[in-house]
Design goal:
This protein is an alpha+beta fold. The chain has three domains: 11-87, Arc Repressor Mutant, subunit A; 93-160; 234-299, no CATH class. 29% of the residues lie in helices and 25% in strands. The chain contains nine helices and 13 strands. The chain has helices spanning 11-17, 21-32, 39-46, 51-61, 77-87, 151-167, 218-222, 226-234, 294-299; strands at residues 66-69, 72-75, 100-105, 112-118, 121-126, 132-134, 178-183, 202-207, 213-216, 256-259, 264-271, 274-281, 286-293. Strand 3 (100-105) and strand 4 form a beta hairpin. Helix 2 (21-32) crosses helix 3. The chain is elongated and about 75 Å long.
Length: 300
């Protein structure tokens, strides 16, 4: 039990407080306001004529989701997170569109890739070899401001941000603590389908609070490591703006097991004729780097 967290409401009590449609309208109006609102101003914006009824429902929100200060009513951090979760579209919308044929070749076999929409996410895969490069569950609100053809690039940025949060140890769903493990076939945390045929190792992120789990390709898991970012930056590649399918080294099986005990695996990253092979340990820390210039290798 944490010595800094004091639970004031149970999850059931918290959901009960916002279960009434009028209460969410209050939260929504406060979220849209540029400044705190006085009682009468908020009542007018919500559209409730009976001040007694309005005061009753507003009172249920004050304290946890709404703060009543000298300047008026405003949302607390918890209130903004609640409204944001609804606006993300995860509760109210689904994704529904024809696939996007991407003008990029599969890094595995060279065939065209596609982005396919499903209710709760987007799959980016190869039409020929069935290699799945990305398969995230994405809140539909992420794509509200973008066209169908822009979806692949948006998915790339969103997936990087989603995994980046976990590399810092936080669950993207409940903000709980994330434990990260490098797994081999047969390990306790390894998925049943992971037989070692395509991959030597995988990376599993698992939340200790809500048990949310992400089984990740190694390249995704190490993409945000400072050594990997720096190697790309030195050669003019901005990983924030470059989709992973434009990285020549980002392919199935790129990570190879170098040692069992202690666990070590290698990821060769090639840019512009220079290859840097990063050796990672079980904590995803770089323990060795080896750089080879293609020109030097040919002349040796």
């Amino acid at each position: 039990m944490s010595d800094v967290v004091d639970e004031r409401l149970s999850p059931d009590e918290a959901f009960e407080l916002v279960a009434h449609e009028l209460r969410f309208r209050i939260l929504r109006e406060l979220n849209e306001a540029d400044e705190p609102l006085a009682f009468t101003g908020l009542q007018s914006r919500v559209g409730v004529e009976d001040p007694g009824q309005f005061n009753y429902h507003l009172g249920k929100l004050v304290g946890r989701f709404v703060r009543d200060g000298d300047e008026g009513y405003r949302l607390t951090g918890a209130g903004r997170r609640l409204v944001g979760a609804v606006f993300s579209g995860g509760y109210t919308s689904v994704l529904d569109a024809e696939p996007v044929e991407m003008d990029v070749p599969c890094l595995n076999c060279g065939a065209p890739m596609s982005a396919r929409f499903r209710d709760d996410g987007i799959t980016i895969d190869c039409d020929d070899c069935d290699m799945i490069f990305s398969n995230p569950e994405i809140p539909p609100g992420v794509l509200e401001a973008h066209s169908r053809d822009e979806a692949p690039a948006v998915v790339d940025r969103w997936t990087k941000a989603y995994l980046h949060v976990q590399t810092y140890g936080f669950c993207p769903y409940c903000d709980g603590p994330i434990e990260t493990a490098v797994v081999r076939p047969g390990d306790d945390l390894a998925a049943d389908w992971f037989d070692g045929e395509r991959f030597d190792v995988r990376v599993v992120h698992r939340c200790r609070r809500c048990h949310h789990r992400v089984d990740s390709l190694v390249p995704f898991a190490v993409l945000a490591h400072p050594a990997v970012v720096g190697f790309h930056h030195e050669r003019g590649v901005d990983l924030r703006k470059t989709p992973v399918w434009e990285l020549d080294w980002f392919r199935s099986g790129v990570a190879t097991l170098a040692n069992d005990d202690p666990l070590r695996f290698e990821v060769p990253v090639s840019i512009g004729g220079v290859t840097c092979t990063f050796t990672f340990d079980a904590d995803l820390d770089v323990v060795d780097e080896r750089r080879v210039d293609a020109g030097e290798r040919e002349n040796s």
